[in-house]
C-alpha cells in the first residue's frame, strides 16, 4: 500500500486518514497554501502553516475549523508524523512531509526555488517519494533573475510616466500582487489597487507583513488619481469595463506564460513580464534531484512531458491526474 494515494477526492493518506489539498469535501484536510485550487470549501477540519490561517478564513469563512502550525513543527495524526516545510510559492505556502514506518513522502503543492524576499524560501527534503507540480514543465520556461525582471518593470513604469500614461500591472490577487508591491515599495510612492487585491492585502498588513500601503479603487476614485499612477489588478480585470476609467494607460501582464511571446499578443498587452511564483524547468529538475526520491509523481501542468523526461533520465516517474490548476486561469474575482 502506498503511503499517499491519488483518489477521486484528493491525495489521501489512509494510515493517517487525512487528505492533502482535497478537491472534494473530506473530514481532515492538510493544506499546502491558500490558492483556490488547493484550498477548497467544505472540509470539516483544516491544518496549515500559521500564515495561511487568516488567508483561509478570508477565503472560506471565519467559522472554519483550522489549526495553524509552524514550519518544521511535527504533528502526529493516527501515528503518522506530519511536518510542513517551506515551499517558497507565496506567503504561508508549504510542502507536506509525511513520515510513517520509516517511509517518507513529500507533497510539494506549488513551489519556486528563487527567494522572493517575502515568502519563506523553498527547502528541499530528502524522501522516498516526491509529488511535484509541473506548471512550467517544458524546457522553454527558464526564468531570468527577479532583480532583472523588476528592473525592467520599473523602467517600463518610468517610461509610461514620461508618456503621460498610467501603468496597469495584472497579477494574481493573492501571492503575485504582494510580491510586486514588496519589490516595488522603495521605488513607487503610491499604489492604486483593485478590490480583489486590497482585501487580502489588508489581511496581510494586519498580520504584520512588511508591505506598503495601498489605495483601493472605488467608483468614487477621481479620474485624475489615475494619471501616471501604478495600478495593480487581477487578470480578470483585463477585458472588464473597470479598466476604461484608467485611460490613458499601458497594460503589463506579470506571468510565466509571457515566456511565449504569442501570449502577450493574444491578450493585447503592451508589455509582458515573465514573473512566476512557480519553478521553471531548471528549478523543477533541481528540486526533484535534491529530494533523492526513488519515485516521483507529477501533477498539474506539463505532467506527461516532465514525467517522461525524468524517466528517460533514470528517475522513475509517472503523471497523475488531479484537479489542481493555475491561479490565473481559475481566479475570477469581481472588481
What does this structure look like?
By secondary structure, this protein is an alpha/beta fold. The longest helix has 17 residues, at 146-162. A hairpin with a 2-residue loop joins strand 9 (94-100) and strand 10. Helices cover 23% and strands 25% of the residues. It has a 7-stranded mixed beta sheet, with helices on one face. A 6-stranded mixed beta sheet has the order 1-2-3-4-5-6, covered by helices on one side. It contains 8 helices and 19 strands. The chain has 2 domains: 5-140 and 278-330, 4-Layer Sandwich (Metallo-beta-lactamase, Chain A), CATH 3.60.15.10; 146-273, Rossmann fold (3-Layer(aba) Sandwich). Residues 328-335 have low confidence and may be disordered. It comes from Chitinophaga silvatica. Keywords: Exonuclease, Hydrolase, Ligase, Nuclease. This is Ligase-associated DNA damage response exonuclease.
Summarize this structure as a short list of keywords or feature phrases.
Metallo-beta-lactamase, Chain A, 25% strand, disordered C terminus, 6-stranded mixed beta sheet, alpha/beta, Rossmann fold
Net shape: globular
CATH superfamily of the largest domain: Ribonuclease Z/Hydroxyacylglutathione hydrolase-like
Reading side by side through the largest sheet, how are the strands ordered?
Answer: 7-8-9-10-11-18-19
Sheet of most strands: 7 strands, mixed
> In the CATH classification, which architecture of the largest domain applies?
4-Layer Sandwich
Compute the average pLDDT: 93
CATH domain fold name of the largest domain: Metallo-beta-lactamase, Chain A
Distance between the termini: 47 Å
- Indicate the multimeric state: single chain
What top-tier CATH class of the largest domain fits best?
A: Alpha Beta
